[in-house]
Design brief:
The complex is a heterodimer of chains A (210) and B (307). By secondary structure, chain A is mainly α. Helices cover 86% and strands 0% of the residues of chain A. Classes of the chains: A mainly alpha (210), B alpha/beta (307). The A-B interface holds A 33, 36-43, 103-104, 107, 109, 170, 173-174, 176-180 and B 42-43, 129, 154-158, 161-162, 165, 184-186, 189, 191-192, 296-301, 304-305.
Chain lengths: 210, 307
Amino acid sequence: MPSTRSAFHNFLVFGLAFISGFIIMSVELLGGRILAPYFGSSIYVWGSIITIFMLSLSIGYLTGGRLSLQHPTLQRYGSFYLIAALLLLPLVLWGNSIMEAVFLRVEDPRYGSLIVSMLLFFLPTAVLGMIAPYSVRLLVSDSHSSGHVAGMLYFVSTLGSALGTLGTSFYFVLWFEVNQILVTMSVILALSGALAVYTGLKTNQLMAAQ
Amino acid sequence: MKHLSFTLAFLLACTTLATLFASAAADAQSGPSRDIHHERSLYRNIVVTEDSVRRCMRFTITDVSGQNQSCRFLDDHDNLVFPYAKMVLSSLMVQDNPKRILILGLGGGTLVHTFNLLFPAAEIVIVEIDEAVVRVARDYFDFQENAMNKVETADGRVYVKRAGLRGEKFDLVILDAFNGEYIPEHLMSSEFLEEVKLLLPEHGMVVANTFSSSQLYDAESATYAAVFGDFFNIRQFGTGNRVIIASMQPLPEPAALAARAVPLQVRVERFGMNAGEYPALMQTEPDWNQKARILTDQYSPANLLNN
């Protein structure tokens, strides 16, 4: 693995981590807009969204860290993006039906928004959360540099989150509909995943040829 | 026709100037104001100020910013301070005698007080998101809940959606939940207006106190037109407000409005309102960009458009 860890490999992992950070915060911000027609925009709606995002990210970090122990590959890394891309689609396709079903059954908007946040955001965010620890494993070549690499990775992904927040709140909502933004995010995730899988397979072929 | 338009424009200019002079004169007489209450709620800072003439509720983000949301004269609680409240009352020339009224946004309770006096037998439901506003209205503006006034602490959109599911109807719905600093975007979309429309009986009417400038004016106007068709648009120079009156019935002609202003005047005189001014202000001709994008739940950047 170390011999094949080219500059492109590292650039790719950092780039993809940036994208995942960007998309996590973009989706979180859109969450407020998505829930508002059914549960309002009160402080507890944001409380529900942030709680679920934090919870799902924490579980994603744990799961991603565990998976990184078992022969980490770019193909598996790419599969996280492909799965996250698919998991964003129910938000677009059935978001309103899910919110309406919960709205009709749960009178209290605090718990209604919490349940809906769980149903809509938990899985895609948890999968996106798996990316950070897995990225560290793909980048670290020795324990000496592990802190440096982890720091660099958090820098890049958090920078992505900052720009995702800014871009979505300042511009995207002014130019596009919520679903257009979500579908675009899903396509970007799918392309990112496909690129990672392709690069992983190519790397394997090169290694086999050597 | 040209002569009539000129006369109307002249009258409009005169009344606007008179309003501005009266307001400037009141300001000059009111002296320095002092804060008599300051409270930080979940949503905003609420400041109650008082000078020698009037007491006001102001929502602020910083200590120095913010606009008065609600004011009343110390010596005459019935006399309306803000032109927008009179613009809202002019809707009674479109549909009168509401039995059931829904008001989104309490403020200092000025509109509730006014409608209580005008229609003592009408049931008024007030939806206010901020409990602190209700408390301040109660403590500093004599707002009282009773058998006819019921306050629901809730998000306006959620209340309207649930009221629609329950099949509730309101003869008059007043949307007064917007202030200049932050706009609840989910209360501006066409879906929301459709939900409000569900609450209106066949003679029902919605009256919205909103914005008179920025790109939001175009987008909001286009959205109301898409949902309700023609509506009365009331703008008064110097107020920063505009009031939209949309009805489930065809809108009355100018002559009918003028005729209705006469009996209304007797009832609204105590509020410092001259009903005769308003028919000329109630316009149906679009003065907005009709190609503006409609606000929806998917696309509602109201705060960005208001910059």
